[in-house]
Amino acid sequence: MNFKAVPGRLYLTSTNFVHKPNEYFDEELILPFEKIAKIRGVKTKIFGRELIPNIIEIRMFDGIVYQFVINKQKKWLAAIHRLFTDLQQAEKIEMK
Question: Which run of H or of E encompasses 4?
Answer without folding.
Answer: none
